Amino acid sequence: MRSGFVAIVGRPNVGKSTLLNAMVGTKVSITAPRPNTTRFTVRGVVHAPGAQAVVVDTPGLHKPRSELGSRLNATALGALGDVEEVVAVLDATAPVGPGDRLVLERTAEGLAAGGRVLVAVNKRDRARPRQVLDRLAEAARTVEAISPGLAGRTEYFPVSARTGQGVPALVDALLQGLPEGPPYYPAGTVSDLPQAVAVAELVREQLLRSARDELPHSIACVVTEWEWPRIRCEILVERESQKPIVIGRGGERLKAVGSAVRAQLDPAVYLELFVRVERDWQRRGDALDRLGY
Question: What is the Cα–Cα distance from 293 to 191, expressed in whole angstroms?
């Protein structure tokens, strides 16, 4: 039996969460077309005959502008020292830039001795073949420049997390590189995310998707009551003026969000959504501690 832990790292919006879902074969991490959608280390479990990989989705590495941003970076970097392998995700549609180099540098610094790196050049379905080849070559040159020693332990894969192209080859290589060990989770387990956190994340995902550019990114969701089948989830914003954006005209947006979330839960669930102001929560350590960041 082979088993071990793998971290997915990358700058914001390169498709890390979508890739995790594709690797596991089902949705375990929320996705949205907004930077820093992922705020928790979400673990997805990949099962195969004779092998199991626990794959950790991490927040995108970025230049922080708040205490929350600093904590998200620390969360992502903290995952590197506890894994056997790292999947570093790059965007096939854009040149390898300073943000990507930072990801690869931090990977080289934080990965345990002997650990492997699998560079996944994502969004191949949106890029021309020449672009994909250029990104693979740029990535290889960057890794060689950063750490010649790491270059010998790095493999490269063009993938599309959205369509699944190239993902099986990435997963096969990942599983083959794991050390011998016992399974960490029973067969059939796809994630260890607590149910309350999973529901709150589904609410936040739908809010990000429904409002897009309208909705401020300074929003958090937390389940405050769980008395099955009744679940109460609070949506926190930083200013009073942001509440109407979340609620929508006549409550339409909040109703639509609730309906979309309920469609993904047990039909018996009664989901209540409330919006309240938690002033400047992104910059307050006490609020971040309370929210679990």
Answer: 19
Q: What is the dihedral of CA 15, 42, 88, 169, to 10 degrees?
A: -80
- Dihedral angle sign, alpha carbons of residues 186, 191, 195, 196: positive
Q: Parallel, antiparallel, or unpaired: how do β-strands 219-227 and 230-237 relate?
A: antiparallel
Choose among 251, 87, 112: nearest CA to 167: 87
Determine the number of helices (DSSP H) and then strands (DSSP E) in the chain.
10, 9
What's the confidence (pLDDT) of residue 215? 64
First to last CA, the chain: 34
Question: Are residues 123 and 93 in contact, defined by beta-carbon separation less than 8 angstroms?
Answer: yes
* Residues with Cβ within 8 Å of residue 167, at least 6 apart in sequence: 19, 22, 23, 159, 160, 161
- Match 């942001």 to its residue by tokens: 242
Interhelix angle 167-176/16-24, nearest 10 degrees: 70
All structural domains of the chain: 2-176 (3.40.50.300), 195-291 (3.30.300.20)
Q: Quick one: pLDDT band at residue 213, thresholds 50, 70, 90?
A: low
Q: Is the pLDDT of residue 72 over 90?
A: no
